[in-house]
Amino acid sequence: QVQLVESGGGLVQAGGSLRLSCASSGRIFSNYRMGWFRQAPGKEREFVAYIRRSGSITYYRDSVKGRFTISRDNAKNTVYLQMNSLKPEDTAIYYCAADPKGSTWEVWGQGTQVTVSS
After folding, report:
1. CA separation (Å) from 3 to 14, 77, 106?
2. CA 68, 69, 70, 73: dihedral to nearest 10 degrees?
3. Closest Cα to residue 94, out of 10, 1, 27?
């Protein structure tokens, strides 16, 4: 059973940076597509970014392109989300997710709060 634990959230001023981490335990992390999602108050959860198993292919939602970078360290079973030039609209709970089969986000972390003040 894969478990995911996020960390690195917090309060930051607009224009600042945070790096989120998601540590995985359990099965072979390197075989999984990994992603980040977020949910703002009163809104549905939305996709932020994902990274393929090898780390060579990444994909981002338009609103974070050029500001956020997803990466992974398979030796450490960890995926990261570097967030720069943060905006108040980035405020949300950020969730890490794992896709073992390349088609469905099956495993979710508990989330970490990111708050960006104006």
Report:
1. 32, 11, 11
2. -140
3. 10
Token digits of residue 65: 């392109």
> What would the mean pLDDT of 1-19 be, rounded to a whole number?
95
**Chain position carrying tokens 């809104």:** 43
Phi, psi dihedrals of residue 109, rounded to the nearest 5° = -85, 180
Q: How confident is the model at residue 26 (pLDDT cuts 50, 70, 90)?
A: low
Sign of CA dihedral 62, 63, 69, 72: negative
CB-based burial, 84-105: b 16+ in 10 Å, e otherwise:
eebeeebbbbbbbbbbbeeeeb
**Each residue's pLDDT tens digit, 54-104:** 888 999 999 999 999 999 998 899 999 999 999 999 999 999 999 988 889
CB atoms within 10 A of CB 42: 5
Complete DSSP assignment for 83-97: E-S--GGG-EEEEEE
> Residue type for 21, please?
S
